[in-house]
Amino acid sequence: MGLLKLLVVAGLVVKSTCSSNLPDFCTISFVESSFPAPDFFQGLELIAGSVTAQPVTNFTALPDSTHPGATGRNFCNVTFAYRHVGRPSDRVNLWLYLPSPAQFKNRFLATGGGGLSVTLGARGLATGLPYGAASITTDAGFGGFDSDLSRVILYGSGAMNYDALIAYSYRAMHEMTVLGKELTRKFYSSSNLTKIYSYFHGCSEGGREGMSQVQRYGTTFDGVSVGSPAIRHPIFHYHGPLAQRKHDYYPSVCELARITADAIAFCDPLDGKTDGVVARTDLCFARFNASSSIGNPYNCSAVPQLGQPPIAGTVSAKAAVVAAETWRGMYDSKNKLVHPFYAPSVDFSDSVTVFNPATNQLEPYPNPLSPAVVNLLIKEVYSATLPLDEVSPDVVREWVNDAMSKYMSTIFTLWPDLTPFKSNGGKMIVWHGEADAMIPAVSSTMYQDKIRKTMYPGLGVQQGYAEMAKWNKLFLVPGGSHCDPGTVDPLGVVKPNNAAWPTEVLKSLMEWVEEGKDFERLEGIVQGGEKKGEKEGICGFPLRPVWGSNTSGGNGKGKGKGKGKGKGQQQDDEGEELQCVFDQQSFEFFTPKLDSFLVDAY
Ligand SMILES: *[C@@H]1O[C@H](CO)[C@@H](O)[C@H](O)[C@H]1NC(C)=O
Ligand SMILES: *[C@@H]1O[C@H](CO)[C@@H](O)[C@H](O)[C@H]1NC(C)=O
Ligand SMILES: *[C@@H]1O[C@H](CO)[C@@H](O)[C@H](O)[C@H]1NC(C)=O
Ligand SMILES: *[C@@H]1O[C@H](CO)[C@@H](O)[C@H](O)[C@H]1NC(C)=O
Ligand SMILES: *[C@@H]1O[C@H](CO)[C@@H](O)[C@H](O)[C@H]1NC(C)=O
Ligand SMILES: *[C@@H]1O[C@H](CO)[C@@H](O)[C@H](O)[C@H]1NC(C)=O
Ligand SMILES: [Ca+2]
């Protein structure tokens, strides 16, 4: 705390010696004069003549899922490139938005990518604008900001480009951050005493990139915001298609959507508040039985992107079996868990089927990321196809085993000792939509628990988490989907979400880092319904949400322990309070053992 205070005080000595007129300093020569010294980062050399710099004025950053947007932004739009010594054809492009001195708030923001890309380009850079942060992104040397790992990972089938692999895994982010921080300091002629706070923000693959830095370079960031991290890369999306094949039934997305709707209707009130949001997927998993959907009607218009004609019918017993099998998680032939599960209230967007007009039948359609990752990283071949016939849970287990032995030190981002980050005073907020259909929320809870067990072995569960929350907090966002509060399901229906979403996670992080403003619940903004726009807290794991006293009748004052025995649905009453409670069964639900693996795989 003392150190933090000191840094905050130092941060007040904001002094800029350069002109505050944007066109005056947003020039190629001024940017070149702000370059890190040639020996600043050994092994890297800036590419002469690579700089571009253009002043941008009165720019509007549109609101995005994790920032509120901003108007009237003035910044210098800069790109430049560097190469690794000894690799003359190498070119890594960096791209920065450097706010005008008047708008710069002594903040640096590294941004991450998504899918197989390490950059979101302009969309990611805009994240820094509302916060007066110099923001930066890299193409990792993959050939431009619209390229990705799939274009460079293999020199040819069987010949892996390990430089690209390592760049993607962690190294490109690190180089970008170190160079970007120094350039930022020099660009604003900041004195050595001025604290420039350093942040990371990213979701999915971007979240993994942030985690890779926390695990490896504990002193580069003061604050890190990690959303739905893809830390178990390569991730596999085969549980849905395999469940369908096992029962030889390929339900339409329409039939599956009906089951999801039934699950949400059933599970919504279990959290004590009937608002269309399932805040307790653990209770939903334990109690909803897909059989209860059998016979319920569905009727959907065409889904052109899946080639599907209009379809109507009633939920079949086979569809119910397939749904239950999908939710169960992936089990191997010895009935051991290979892949974590999804809750019934999470939509089936990772389990869609496509209509084949040639056979007039629905067919399984694994998420294309799976064959891509398996072909490139496991089989090391350039191929777009991977027949589902070649896949089974036992095969998936062996892929994970192979991938672990091959990539544990690169793309698997699971190192559980974060002591250097903690010791350096780093703060981390991890957020994960509880209804994420791409990467199950349980992936983040399992990793969080691994950190807890590693770093606080002597403490009990709740005490361990309480200690860890001083620098590392995980929030499961009720109803939240993958990096986004709302979802568009495979039917093209935008799902309303009446829950809070952490739109301003960076604001919470910056206040925590810069002002020492600690918090238990992450501030979210209600996205829909009557309370749209209002602030609402999100519980920190392992505590779980319960609304009000959750007793029958639902008119309680909301002061109970959330253990009420009443039954029946409860309406959302004014005055019903959110409580965050520890629940042993819920905790166990979120920390399963993937016992298909002899090594502690997850
Ligand atoms: C800035 O942009 C807004 C709309 O985007 C416009 O209304 C305003 O006039 C602009 N201001 C200046 C100084 O150009
Ligand atoms: C920033 O510069 C890049 C590269 O020159 C360009 O593609 C992009 O359009 C610029 N962005 C803005 C907001 O001017
Ligand atoms: C700031 O730090 C750099 C590198 O340590 C040093 O070369 C420089 O003299 C310092 N400047 C001031 C004003 O202290
Ligand atoms: C679900 O309900 C069906 C029909 O009532 C029943 O046969 C089955 O055992 C139930 N499954 C579970 C897991 O309770
Ligand atoms: C499905 O919905 C359409 C449009 O609302 C309607 O015309 C049609 O009769 C419905 N089909 C069935 C089988 O209910
Ligand atoms: C809320 O009450 C219902 C009905 O008694 C119960 O089934 C459910 O478990 C309760 N939820 C919590 C979180 O305690
Ligand atoms: Ca609810």
Automatic annotation (TrEMBL):
Keywords: Calcium, Disulfide bond, Hydrolase, Metal-binding, Serine esterase, Signal
Coiled-coil regions listed in the entry: none
EC number: 3.1.1.-
Superkingdom of origin: Eukaryota
Entry annotated with the keyword Calcium: yes
GO molecular function: feruloyl esterase activity; metal ion binding
Top enzyme class: hydrolase
Keyword Protease set for record: no
Residues in the signal sequence: 1-19
Region (Disordered) location: 544-577
Family from the record: Belongs to the tannase family.
Protein name: Carboxylic ester hydrolase
